Structure formats: structure tokens, C-alpha cells
Amino acid sequence: MFELKEKRILLGITGGIAAYKAAELVRLLRRSNAEVQVVMTQAATEFITPLTLQTLSGRRVRQAFFDPNDEASIGHIDLARWADLILIAPTSADFMARLAHGLANDLLSTLCLAATAPIALAPAMNQQMWLNPATQANAKLLQARGIKLWGPGDGEQACGETGPGRMLEPAELLAQTIKQFNSQLLAGQCVLLTAGPTQEPIDPVRFIGNRSSGKMGFALAQAFVEAGAQVYLISGPVALATPTGVTRIDVGTAIEMQQRVTEHINRCDIFVACAAVADYRPKATAAQKIKKSREQLDLILTRNPDILAEVAASTVPPFTVGFAAETEQLIKHAEEKRRLKRVDMIAANLVGAEQGGFERDENALTVLWEGGSKNLPMARKEKLAQSLVATITERYHAEKHPTKDS
Ligand code: CTP
Fold first, then answer.
1. Atom of ligand 1 nearest to the CA of 346
2. Assessment of whether the complete model's pTM goes beyond 0.85
3. Average of pLDDT values for 72-82?
4. Which of 80, 146, 206, 396 is deepest in the core (most CB within 10 A)?
């Protein structure tokens, strides 16, 4: 709910039937704690009343360019400077054309010319209008200038036709907005992750290992890349493709994982231990395959290094995040683990027969840190990874640059 805390969104609304959806969009943005300033074109007011948007946004809606009262309170240039993002939803074909040609014949188009903030458009129009070469050329030109196009989607249209031109749903626009801000938050930062299981050899063909698909670690690596970070992923044996932009280092045993982490840790700002590291390894590995000649076989196991605890105990530790997979008393055990390992944050989840296996595509987490916690509800691991990265990013920045309310 705090994904857009202190973010200032200037929501432009142009004339089109999808304008009615802007009300829901304002509500969702406000619920994510964004500040929302609505600016409407004249045509937009034919579809939805400024009063509705004013009530939902909690701010006076701006429409007219030449309004001495508005200009006295906050002028149009200041309004352009105020925004962290200009989102225009819906964007009509006419507005795209005006923007492509740099016209400044109303408040919204002028703001776009004066703004330095990123601009995102959510086109909404009849499918023939969208497919028209003029609109397509405008879309390409705007994109080439760095303006983002979110949508349009495909489907049934208000005019009765079916095809491309539907405005993305408010929830999708909210997700894009959150992604837009996340994508800049870890730029220039380096993240090191461990993922997957480790395999501790008993002999050349057998090993001791934990059940782990590596999906969560890989999804996290992807989400960190999307957040702008440089990402190193040290992975045990898994059957997963490397996410684009991630530097992957494959390992087998816990000792190998520890060595690779030691090699890379100094350059990293954030360390996330997602691997299901085997706590013990056979004291000796047989050189040849062990034959089943004996009735009983005793294996002597020795403790593996705790990679996460070692990193957290280093002289200048990065921001450290661990996982706690527990079968009972989730919060108690996870909190104990957080304190014992002295990590900045721990992400706890229930595992076991009732909760489902490690190979699931969905999960839920409770994230704990000193003085705070957050529940991340059941979601696909990709979505959950994005939420966790957002939470890590928030805490990382809060601890790096402490402010009064952090
Ligand atoms: N971890 C690690 N190195 C190990 C063991 C665990 O880096 N040798 C990390 C895991 O990646 C995870 C966290 O420590 O982030 C917790 O691991 P877990 O196995 O749940 O806890 P343990 O510390 O092993 O405690 P226990 O098995 O007693 O629950």
C-alpha cells in the first residue's frame, strides 16, 4: 500500500469514453499513497465531472490555461516541475497528435512541453483510429522521444468493434506506475543473491541436498534487474533459465557457494540469501560409488558454513536479507533467526505438507526487520518477488539515509 509513498503523479485526462475509468485509477493511486493532481482537457469534462476527480484526489482539478486563480496558487510551470510522473489516461488520438507536434494549446499539452518528469500515455481510441498510419507514426515518434506508451490493450470496444485501442485497466496502469518508480530506485546499486539448493556429495553419484526449485531466487534476481540494480546470482543446481541482465555463477556445494559469495561480496550493496543451503555435508566423500554390500551405512556429517551469518558478521556488511522456511511458529522462529544471524531483514514463509511444497509457483511471505514487519500476501513468485524487492528497497534506502520518520 505504500509503494507510491511521496510520489507525485500528475494525471492528465483527455476526451474519450475511457475517461470514466480515471476515477478508479485515482482511487488506486491514492490507496498506494501517491499524491495525485488531475489535469483535464476540455473534452474530458464531457465524459466525467471534475468534481468526481476532485473528491477522489483531494486536490482541486486543473482545467483552464488562463485561470488567474490557479496561476496565482501554483502556476503551470510549477505544476510541471511538481510532478514525478505525468500519466495521461486516457490519451486520445488527438492528444497524441498534439504532443507529437509539440503543440501547447491547452494546459495539459503545455505541461507536457514544460515537464522534465517522465511522461506515460495510456492510449484509448477506436481500433481504426489507433491503426491509422498517422496515429502509428505519432506513437513511434513519441516513443523515440522517450515517452512511454502503456497499452493500448486489445478487445471489445465501447463503439462495438473489437481490436487494439482499449485503455489498459486501472489496476494495470497502477502496476506500470509502481514499476516505473521501482525501476529507478536501485540504479547504480549492486545486488548479490544466492538461490537454489546445494548438493553435498556422498560419492560420485549421490548427494545430500534440500528441496528447492530456485524459482524465488531467480524471480528476485529478475525483479532486482527491473529495479535498475546490477545483479550477481550464485545458484545451486536448478533447471531455470537465467533472467536477462543477470550475471549467473553456478555452484554445486555449500563450500563452493561460500567461496563465490566471498569473491563478490565486497562490491555489493545488498545481499539476499535465498538458497536452501545444506546445513551439513558428508565428512568424507567416497572416491568411488559406494556398493550396497553392507546392511547399515553410517554417514558422518559435518556443519557447513552459514553463508548468510558470515556475510552479516563481516566488517562492513552490505544490507543483508535472509529467508526463514519454517514448519511451525513462523514469526517466533524467523525473528530468532534474524537476531541470531544479525541480518537486516528476514523473509519468512511456512513450508511443509499442508502449506505445499517448495516447487510451488505461489508463495506468501512475512517480512521482519528491527521495529517493523510486513505481510506480502499469496501471489505468484514473480509478483511476490517484485513486492519483496520494493520492501527491501524501501528499508535499504531508509537505513542508508535515515530520515526522521524512517
Ligand atoms: N543460509 C546460509 N547458509 C547456510 C544455511 C542457511 O546462507 N549454511 C541462509 C539461507 O539462505 C536462508 C537463511 O540462512 O536465507 C535461513 O536458512 P534456514 O535453513 O531456514 O535456517 P538455518 O539457519 O539453517 O536454521 P534451521 O535449519 O535450524 O532452521
1. 15
2. no
3. 79
4. 396
